[in-house]
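Feature request, filed as a ticket because there's no other form

It would be nice if the structure record came with a short human-readable summary line next to the tokens. Right now we just get the raw output. Example of a typical job, pasted below so the devs can see what we mean:
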Amino acid sequence: MTPPASNKTTSKREPLRRGRVLEGAVALADEVGMEGFTIRKLATAIDVKPMTIYHHLPNKEAIIDGMVDLIFAEIDLPPVGGDWKEAMRRRARSARTVLARHPWATPLMESRTNPGPATLKHHDAVLGCLRQGGFSIEMTAHAYALIDAYIYGFALQEASLPATGGEDMAELADAIVEQFPADAYPYLMELTTEHVLKPGYDFGSEFEFGLSLILDGLDSSPR
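Raw output as currently delivered:
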């Protein structure tokens, strides 16, 4: 008679692969930022020995290259052909959302000298969208630089603000205003009381306003 099969299962550690290293690296950076990012911490986070990581990626720079490539893969690609303005708007919104999830990534997005396939695919799609939208090569370069400078700059500013709206913004503004006489900085007081402290204020709404100015300006410029 065959004995019944045991209900016990043997716990096996998931084999390490390059993708798991990079996914773990992104998760760690989301938690501690790049200032606190070390290979030792990464090894602990993915439950391996530090030297094991180097079997899949040769050094920290290669890991960062792969991390940035994963972030680019999260951003929606603009379709080539069709309405270039709407495509650029959707891509910009997606990039802002992704960078808000991974604020450590913003300063690194255009700094890598060994870009991965997702990075290259993303850049090619943006260039293709602008070229098919009627932009010359020179104007494509101008437009791409301007749009990305705005996206990355806004992402950096938004991530560094102590508050962006709601009760947190109201408390911060009140605390600052209390430190000086009402007539000391009249225009700052005016903006704070007549705009920032109004119900529903959200700094994030400035993104759409600025983006529209840029896209409308590019649309009306010679191509």
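Something like this underneath would help us a lot:
The two ends are 83 Å apart (CA to CA).
Confidence is low (pLDDT under 50) at residues 4-11.
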